[in-house]
Amino acid sequence: MEFKLNISNTVINTLLTVVFFFVLLTFQIAEANIHHHTFTIKSKAYTRLCNTKKILTVNGEFPGPTLKAYRGDKLVVNVINNANYNITLHWHGARQVRNPWSDGPEYVTQCPIRPGESYVYRIDLAVEEGTIWWHAHSQWARATVHGAFIIYPKLGSSYPFPKPYREIPLILGEWWKKKNIMDIPTNANKTGGEPAISDAFTINGQPGFLYSCSKPDTFTMTVVHGRQYLLRIINAVMDEELFFAIANHTLTVVAKDGLYLKHFESDYLMITPGQSMDVLLHANQLSGRYFVAARAYSSAFGAGFDKTTTTAILQYEVVSLNQSQPVLPNLPPYNRTEATTRFTNQIRSYRFGDRPVNVPVKIDTRLLYAISVNLMNCTDDKPCNGPFGKRFSSSVNNISFVNPSIDILRAYYRRIGGVFQEDFPRNPPTEFNYTGENLPFPTRFGTKVVVLDFNTSVELVLQGTNVLASDNHPIHLHGYSFYVVGSGFGNFDSRKDPLRYNLVDPPEETTVGVPRNGWAAVRFIANNPGVWLLHCHIERHATWGMNTVFIVKDGPTTSSRMVKPPPDLPSC
Ligand SMILES: *[C@@H]1O[C@H](CO)[C@@H](O)[C@H](O)[C@H]1NC(C)=O
Ligand SMILES: *[C@@H]1O[C@H](CO)[C@@H](O)[C@H](O)[C@H]1NC(C)=O
Ligand SMILES: *[C@@H]1O[C@H](CO)[C@@H](O)[C@H](O)[C@H]1NC(C)=O
Ligand SMILES: *[C@@H]1O[C@H](CO)[C@@H](O)[C@H](O)[C@H]1NC(C)=O
Ligand SMILES: *[C@@H]1O[C@H](CO)[C@@H](O)[C@H](O)[C@H]1NC(C)=O
Ligand SMILES: *[C@@H]1O[C@H](CO)[C@@H](O)[C@H](O)[C@H]1NC(C)=O
Ligand SMILES: *[C@@H]1O[C@H](CO)[C@@H](O)[C@H](O)[C@H]1NC(C)=O
Ligand SMILES: *[C@@H]1O[C@H](CO)[C@@H](O)[C@H](O)[C@H]1NC(C)=O
Ligand SMILES: *[C@@H]1O[C@H](CO)[C@@H](O)[C@H](O)[C@H]1NC(C)=O
Ligand SMILES: [Cu+2]
């Protein structure tokens, strides 16, 4: 079933139209290409850090195959599950307009594809352009089942920056030397403690030069002096936000989450799990070798984390410097929240081409979601290895999300009762000093959603809390992008803070890092009907329950209604 990805071979064009309708053909190339892919999930042995173990892969590759398309194209991906685990795939950053059936999160929009089964995902790209990515959305499979998804401007259009000489995808990942990744959440759930901490981060699959067993295979990018390169950087890490830098080189950030932004320069990036960034690199330094490096930004006091540094090498084609080892960049210290704030505060949306900046001004629905890590008493005789002899949990508005037994989308569409409740609290059920010296408290389990009318304009304030430990939470919304109109530290003040909102050029994103002990206010128009997950992209937090769901009702016209479910939708 092995299938070599080759987009040029798979583009379907109706060549019959060539002779008579040249104009129509141009239209098809630019707007209506369909790319067919087959993704076969299987286990394959990989050696990293001197140890060989089996991991889940797509088509035997790690990281998985890169999807490439032009803006406006359609992709059809047949996913064949030849592994021994359930699987689903998510197209992270693709809006899936009216088609939640292809969005991917298990038990939210579909039942898992079971071993031996297959499912066809359809992705219609409309507004997306730049770098997004795809990953598994089933248990912890995404640790190795992920890859880049590159969307070029339509043929005939150009980037809003000088055409780079070359493009280089850099996928940041996380590696456990001996543990079977698929056992990590199960084992953590047995003890109630932290999931196992990883042994390394990776760049394009390799921990890098600082590990003797990775040194010879370190990802190396060779550049020509004077040229400009486009780095397509994706944080596919499970549990840590990362600082990223290239020694002696200033980076120009031009896009984030598949959305262009106003260019800005920085010596480093802070990129959360779930985010992708397009960055220009000017090869304008002395012709030598430089480290590309990333390590954790971890702000939760007392939380264990992987303290290692992953590297790749930037090497000039003709090396004139005599260096014993490449130069290491200065990365901010692990807990330097100011460095995170300084970086993210520079992001501004960019009015470009047919992409206006349309920040909703009149708000119909205001939501305040407090997000926290919680501790539960033990309910059975299993040992509780979390802090204070309790079990970890996490919540949004004090509800810790529980996967239902069939997906919420099917239950909603087919009106099957008893699967979810529509009473998710629109404000924290108990008001407290969210960022104060709180004692950790327990939470409630539930499968609750907020139902929104079609076209509702929503303001959602994500309020970080200091319950147990405050952390920067990368919150990702499926089916939408949103404008981050404000953010700050401490408790959101509904009287004062809106006065300082940026309604002119706020960042437009699909994953926002909610500041540690702070808040972020996002706005969007609920004009994509479906069932859409909102969750923390730090995997351990999502596993503990930091998820919730929006159901957006159908609009009044055929073109504002959800499409029908596909015939091959897996059942539970
Ligand atoms: C975790 O363990 C508890 C019992 O200790 C069980 O009720 C629950 O279903 C488990 N959750 C998962 C996701 O395995
Ligand atoms: C890199 O930058 C450091 C610090 O600014 C400087 O000391 C060093 O000479 C530079 N190295 C190269 C090869 O440019
Ligand atoms: C490079 O530097 C090393 C150590 O400083 C020296 O031994 C070696 O001769 C140098 N090589 C060249 C080609 O200059
Ligand atoms: C960051 O870590 C350093 C070194 O461990 C510590 O001294 C400092 O208090 C920490 N800062 C914060 C804000 O937690
Ligand atoms: C949790 O355990 C503590 C100490 O064992 C006890 O005081 C408390 O009442 C328990 N809470 C619940 C909700 O059972
Ligand atoms: C919340 O707690 C923090 C930390 O103790 C304190 O500085 C702040 O004043 C408190 N805010 C309110 C509104 O009580
Ligand atoms: C959250 O829910 C738990 C369980 O019902 C309750 O004990 C706790 O007080 C609630 N906390 C808040 C802040 O609402
Ligand atoms: C949605 O709202 C926009 C702006 O108010 C309006 O122009 C549009 O017609 C609405 N769409 C539908 C289908 O109601
Ligand atoms: C795989 O999915 C099926 C269908 O939902 C479910 O019954 C089964 O428990 C799942 N298996 C695992 C290991 O989660
Ligand atoms: Cu989180």
TrEMBL record:
It catalyses: 4 hydroquinone + O2 = 4 benzosemiquinone + 2 H2O. It is an enzyme of class 1 (oxidoreductase). Pfam families: Cu-oxidase, Cu-oxidase_2, Cu-oxidase_3. Keywords: Apoplast, Copper, Glycoprotein, Lignin degradation, Metal-binding, Oxidoreductase, Repeat, Secreted. Belongs to the multicopper oxidase family. CDD domains: CuRO_1_LCC_plant, CuRO_2_LCC_plant, CuRO_3_LCC_plant. One of its GO terms (biological process) is lignin catabolic process. SUPFAM superfamilies: Cupredoxins. GO terms for cellular component: apoplast. It is found in: Secreted, Extracellular space, Apoplast. Its EC number is 1.10.3.2. This is Laccase. Lignin degradation and detoxification of lignin-derived products. Its cofactor is Cu cation. One of its GO terms (molecular function) is metal ion binding. NCBIfam families: laccase (TIGR03389). Residues 41-154, 167-317, 424-554 form the Plastocyanin-like domain. Binds 4 Cu cations per monomer. InterPro entries: Cu-oxidase-like_N, Cu-oxidase_2nd, Cu-oxidase_C, Cu-oxidase_fam, Cu_oxidase_CS, Cu_oxidase_Cu_BS, Cupredoxin, CuRO_1_LCC. The keyword Repeat applies.
